[in-house]
Backbone:
């Protein structure tokens, strides 16, 4: 099918629903001064793009981040693959029939056995504008492409999560690995692409999942088990310390609570009006700067909106996870799901509002605490974060010469020491750009060239 009409329909619905997130609001301010201090640290052998050589608007990191969805992605061909990842009723719980996982397949212009796998960032659906951007670029460069949603989405939870509760990177990576395996079997059956050579690209939180998948694949090879044919991996803007990154989002949502609702709606309408107009033509530094200026946002507005956007799928994900396995944190859900009559939309609305009110930190504390209590184990948010953060994979990343990194010095989800750690782990396999916030410069020509070179290698 042609992607043009399908993509426009999905994405416009997706972005028009975002203003609703303004009414349910997310953690931890990182000063620009601390970010600048990171530039003075020893960054080892990593490639660093000098500010003077980088053509990019001089925008603060939060504003750069929320402007990034304004990128233009040309219409292209894709097909939705419906993949059965888990069996019906696996595991038992309130939901007795599992959904199929929707995976987008972008066919290469010419026959090839090379396949790019794109793993979306925190809360990204399968039709995320960023995922579509990388999928188009991969297809343009002659690759087949499979696009997956992020693990923290109701889509992934109801179709591919074996436990329902998302946030344990080890368990989530195992579920994701299974989803890739099942998708490749579907691809072989439908398209005749067998045992493809894989290039895995993960951005934001998806980069952490990509790391977990690659480590699991290496372990399977060592054990002599059947493994994926992963040739190379690209990590784009991953948070290093998961808990710090989530608290950074929480702080921004918390700040939004001080902004009058009418003002949030006003800037939301202005944002989406400019967004739809700007997407019509390819992005340039001048057009990106004009888009940012046209929003007329104060610093605290951009700070707050960045948190709201990144937290928008947490509430639906919480409800989905508890439909898979009720941990008793939301007893109202159990009562609603156990009734024989259709769900009361007013009661569900109230429950959704309660789920939306959760911060990431409270989600980890309450739900993982309930899971630990149920399993008679001890778990803390700090331990869960350590297991799920990049340093837990330091030995694997240090030894894996096929894993590469692209990051920004002013990414607000990084601490100064994280930049130093990344450069020491990756060395010449890392490239740092001076500006762009969190994924705010994926369209910039130096970034595009770096990723394109990796895709073609």
Residues:
């Amino acid at each position: 099918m042609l992607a043009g009409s399908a993509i426009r329909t999905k994405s416009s619905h997706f972005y028009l629903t975002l203003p609703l997130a303004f009414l349910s609001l997310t953690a931890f301010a990182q000063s620009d001064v601390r970010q600048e201090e990171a530039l003075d640290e020893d960054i080892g052998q990593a490639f660093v793009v000098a500010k003077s050589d980088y053509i990019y608007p001089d925008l603060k990191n939060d504003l750069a981040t929320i402007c990034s969805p304004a990128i233009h992605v040309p219409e292209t061909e894709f097909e939705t693959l419906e993949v059965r990842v888990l069996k019906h009723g696996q595991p038992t719980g309130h939901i007795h029939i599992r959904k199929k996982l929707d995976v987008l397949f972008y066919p290469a212009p010419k026959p090839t056995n090379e396949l790019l796998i794109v793993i979306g960032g925190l809360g990204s659906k399968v039709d995320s504008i960023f995922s579509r951007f990388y999928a188009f670029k991969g297809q343009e460069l002659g690759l087949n492409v499979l696009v997956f949603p992020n693990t923290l989405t109701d889509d992934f939870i109801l179709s591919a999560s074996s436990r329902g509760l998302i946030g344990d990177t080890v368990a989530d990576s195992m579920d994701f690995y299974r989803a890739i395996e099942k998708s490749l079997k579907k691809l072989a059956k439908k398209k005749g692409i067998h045992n493809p050579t894989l290039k895995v690209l993960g951005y934001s939180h998806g980069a952490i999942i990509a790391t977990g998948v690659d480590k699991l694949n290496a372990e399977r090879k060592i054990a002599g088990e059947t493994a994926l044919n992963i040739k190379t991996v690209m990590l784009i803007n991953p948070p290093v310390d998961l808990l710090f990154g989530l608290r950074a989002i929480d702080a921004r949502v918390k700040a939004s609570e001080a902004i009058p609702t009418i003002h949030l709606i006003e800037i939301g309408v202005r944002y989406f009006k400019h967004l739809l107009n700007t997407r019509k033509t390819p992005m340039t530094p001048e057009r990106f700067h004009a888009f940012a200026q046209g929003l007329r946002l104060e610093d605290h507005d951009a700070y707050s909106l960045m948190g709201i956007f990144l937290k928008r799928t947490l509430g639906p994900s919480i409800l989905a996870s508890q439909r898979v396995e009720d941990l008793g944190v939301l007893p109202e859900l159990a009562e609603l799901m156990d009734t024989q009559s259709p769900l009361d939309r007013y009661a569900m609305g109230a429950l959704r509002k309660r789920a939306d009110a959760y911060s990431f930190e409270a989600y980890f504390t309450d739900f993982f605490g309930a899971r630990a209590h149920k399993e008679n184990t001890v778990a803390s948010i700090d331990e869960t974060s350590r297991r799920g953060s990049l340093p837990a994979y330091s030995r694997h990343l240090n030894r894996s010469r096929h894993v590469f990194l692209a990051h920004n010095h002013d990414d607000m989800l990084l601490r100064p020491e994280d930049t130093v750690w990344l450069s020491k782990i990756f060395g010449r396999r890392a490239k740092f750009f001076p500006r762009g916030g969190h994924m705010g410069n994926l369209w910039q020509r130096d970034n595009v060239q770096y990723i394109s070179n990796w895709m073609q290698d």
Confidence is low (pLDDT under 50) at residues 1-43, 90-97.
